[in-house]
Amino acid sequence: MKEKPFTIKHVLDIASLSPDQITYILDTAESFKEISTRSIKKVPTLRGKTVINLFFEPSTRTRASFEIAAKRLSADTLSISASTSSVVKGETLIDTARNLEAMQPDVIVLRHSLSGAPHLLSRHVRASVINAGDGTHEHPTQALLDLLTVREKKGKIKGLKLAIMGDITHSRVAHSNILGFTKMGANVVVSGPATMIPPYIEKLGAKVTLSIKEAVQGADVIMALRIQLERQNKLSFPSIREYATYFGLNTQHLALAAPDAIVMHPGPINRGVEISPELADGPHSVILDQVTNGVAVRMALLYLLLGSETRMSHGDTKKDEKNPPSPPFTKGGHPLSPPLKKGDTGGFSGESQ
Q1: Rounded-to-integer distance, Cα 241 and Cα 37, Å
Q2: Does residue 133 have a pLDDT over 70?
Q3: Where do the DSSP E strands lie in the chain?
Q4: Is it true that the peptide bond before 268 is cis, omega within 30 degrees of 0?
């Protein structure tokens, strides 16, 4: 199949992606999953490229996922947190980014507590910018990995019922998933305390119900969200115990869903609050599959943002036994190399890391 062009420079939100672009990203990510099953989990696709992870908020899954994704594509990586940057000395985000850009990075992955920070950054740097979560706005790569997980487990997205429960107001994951799943033809229902349901959410395409039982009735996919305490000046409900009693997802709720329903959570999980341990660790849970797919999605985005330059450089390279083209481009421009055979280092000379 002829490879489609991917001309986007930045990945800032789901709102600006078309259904065709989302499908293309998911297809590319699906093909990248095979690399992570190899004994040598690395291909030279982005060798010579530099990816900077600039995180102004705590992160485990997203930050580690981006770093692993870049390294598996052989890009050089640098991770910076706010506490170890000059921001603590009064430097602005733009000045920090401009100083980093003076070192010629190719991609800046940004997580920030302020909504719109990646969009602002993209207007001041030449490097591609990927939004790793900005305030309460969006978390596009989380939505993409969630879409990939659902498509992988259910075989489709269109026509499915997705129920999202929890702190909808403060959740950038909820906002991105509502946009992403509705664009791909799913029916989205959100539920939670009335104080955690924003008035505009139906304009994004979601149906609202304050009854968690109604939300999960016949649902194909159930997604629990944690309470974003760090984004609230005070609790929007009487107590954590009361929240867990009335809005915590448990096996009784799962019984109301479709027999083959899957349970999702973007993490981190607060066990016994928004989801019971029995569901989080049960046979319907795909939470760890989401983490696995996160690496593939982020590999795909890095490849699609930078891959065209790499393809051009390899296309201009003359055939030379000492300088062969990288495996990802030896079969009609397909993004992946064939599975490694015994003794094959995947384009590396004697490297085994």
Answers
A1: 42
A2: yes
A3: 50-55, 76-81, 107-112, 128-134, 161-165, 187-191, 207-208, 221-224, 262-264
A4: yes
Mean pLDDT of 170-195: 96
- Comparing CA positions, the residue from 225, 299, 206, 205 lying closest to residue 268 is 225
Asked if residue 213 lies in contact with residue 187, where contact means CB atoms within 8 angstroms, the answer is no
Taking only the tens place, the pLDDT of each residue in 38-91 is: 999 999 999 999 999 999 998 999 999 999 999 999 999 999 987 878 888 889
Question: For 189-242, how does the pLDDT look when each residue is reduced to its tens digit (9 = 90+)?
Answer: 999 999 999 988 999 999 999 999 999 999 999 999 998 766 666 666 778 888
- Angle among Cα 49, 54, 56 to the nearest 5 degrees reads 170
Phi-psi label, residue 3: left if phi above 0, alpha if psi -120 to 50, beta otherwise: beta
* Per-residue exposure over 192-202, b if at least 16 CB sit within 10 Å of its own CB, e if not: bbeebbbeebe
284, 242 Cβ separation under 8 angstroms = no
For residues 214 and 133, give the distance between their C-alpha atoms in angstroms, rounded to a whole number. 30
Angle at 50 between CA 306 and CA 39, to 5 degrees: 85
